[in-house]
Specification:
The protein has 417 residues and is an alpha/beta fold. It folds into 4 domains: 98 residues, GTPase HflX, N-terminal domain (Rossmann fold); 68 residues; 174 residues, P-loop containing nucleotide triphosphate hydrolases (Rossmann fold, 3-Layer(aba) Sandwich), CATH 3.40.50; 62 residues, Alpha-Beta Plaits (2-Layer Sandwich), CATH 3.30.70. The chain is 47% helix and 21% strand. It binds guanosine-5'-triphosphate (GTP) and magnesium ion (MG). The site of guanosine-5'-triphosphate has 16 residues, from helix 8.
């Protein structure tokens, strides 16, 4: 979707359009036009009426379908802008909520985001009710003073109901986690600052079609896939980027969206190696602090220094050395596909849930069923069909290995490593 972005600044204030542009990219919008204006807020539109005309022109010429404001807008300003421009107007807060929604996979995260949306709506509802009562905003959803009160109460009621549900869900989080664990596959989470290249890496690692049974899809969210790391299957999740200058009402929703990371078996913490060392260090430290806050500090973590194509291997390696962090690291370029093999080896070496076994199973229907799972969920070194038995040399998740052990022919089950 094509959008325009706007920031009205005052005095020496710097504009935040570069970051807003990044957020738009993350939300999947294409920024066609940007507008900056220096002036005090105009009561009717926030920006000046002349700039509204300019925007109108750009919308018509460039096919823009939405305008995103860095500034918070009063309901009456939002109303006037929408009326003048005839397309939806949203603010930075709503944009970030959209980004969270794209990534929220757990029920808790979804509820937290809904709650944040309603909180935002409530803060504006007060103003809308006030305006409706004063008769200043007659066109507002066609509400009269009475309906405005009802509207306000309705938001309150929904917030209360969601807060109740959240309490309930928090108590039952474990039930939600079980789903994924059922298959015994490790879960890898991609984490890191916005723009570090998480989605690019996610796509690079997942572009090879991995065959999975339909039942598996029920455990997958839009941002989770099954990949093979050096032959070993794993779930991989792309997560929402760490965003700076987060509006305070969104912090809880942000953490809820990220909590999934704490449930993973391995975190790939991405950072942009092309950034100056100080900034790189600061961002890694902030990221580690966020991981700590969501309770993910005990999850094994690999620092993935991305975008080395922009600085060169040597320079990136020097930076990694100077960072002197207490965790393994790997240098990659997700865009060019560099270093992905080393990454895969490092990751698969850290999977503790796989064991290598040799076994012989009777040549029958039950074994054929099991072979289905074996091909899907393990790294196959050898499967050979013999007279009356099937010989296996595989690296399997522990729960699958246990299934095989129970069905193996007498004494024909050996753990190699
Ligand atoms: N030169 C270079 N650019 C890269 C590389 N990886 C990603 N990029 C670019 O960096 C930008 C951000 O990449 P994304 O993969 O969307 O980053 P992200 O971490 O998913 O960002 P958010 O979803 O906003 O948190 C895009 O323009 C990518 O093309 C890389 O290895 N080299
Ligand atoms: Mg992304």
């Amino acid at each position: 979707m094509k959008v325009a972005i706007v920031h009205r600044v005052q005095g020496d204030e710097e504009d935040n359009l570069a970051e807003l542009r990044e957020l738009c990219r993350t939300a999947g919008y294409e920024v066609m036009y940007q507008l900056k204006q220096k002036r005090p807020p105009h009561p009717k539109y926030n920006i000046g009426p002349g700039k509204v005309e300019e925007l109108k022109e750009a919308i018509r010429e460039l096919g823009i379908e939405k305008v995103i404001f860095e500034n918070d807008l009063k309901p009456v300003q939002e109303y006037n802008l929408a009326k003048a421009l005839k397309i939806p107007i949203i603010t930075r807060t709503q944009l970030i909520l959209e980004i969270f929604s794209l990534h929220a996979s757990s029920i808790e995260a979804k509820l937290q985001i809904k709650l944040a949306e309603l909180k935002y709506e409530l803060s504006r509802a007060k103003e809308k009710v006030r305006l409706a009562k004063k008769g200043e905003q007659p066109g507002f959803h066609g509400l009269g003073a009475y309906e405005a009160d009802v509207y306000y109460d309705e938001i309150h009621r929904r917030m209360f109901s969601i807060a109740k549900k959240l309490e309930h869900v928090k108590k039952h989080m474990d039930l939600i986690r079980v789903n994924r664990k059922e298959f015994g596959l490790p879960l890898i989470s991609l984490a890191g600052y916005t723009n570090a290249g998480k989605s690019t890496l996610f796509n690079a690692l997942t572009n090879e079609e991995v065959k999975v049974s339909p039942q598996l899809f029920t455990t997958l969210t839009p941002t989770t896939r099954i990949i093979r790391m050096n032959g070993k299957p794993a779930f991989i999740s792309d997560t929402v980027g760490f965003i700076k200058n987060l509006p305070t009402p969104l912090i809880e929703a942000f953490y809820a969206t990220l909590k999934e990371i704490a449930l993973s078996d391995l975190i790939l913490l991405l950072a942009d190696a092309s950034e100056p060392l100080d900034k790189l260090r600061e961002r890694i430290e902030t990221s580690l602090q966020i991981l700590y806050n969501i309770g993910a500090h005990n999850v094994p973590t690999i620092l993935v220094l991305n975008k080395v194509d922009l600085v060169g291997m040597d320079d990136a390696a020097r930076k990694a050395e100077e960072l002197d962090l207490e965790m393994p690291h790997v240098l990659i370029s997700a865009k060019m596909g560099w270093g992905l093999q080393s990454l895969q080896e490092m990751v698969s070496g850290m999977f503790k849930n796989f064991i290598r076994i040799e076994s012989k199973l009777p040549y029958d229907g039950e074994t054929m069923n099991m072979l289905n799972d074996i091909y899907q969920f393990s790294k196959v070194n050898e499967v050979s069909f013999n007279d009356g038995f099937v010989k296996l040399d595989i690296e399997a998740p522990i729960c699958l290995a246990e299934k095989i052990r129970r069905y193996a022919m007498d004494g024909e089950f050996k753990i190699i490593g």
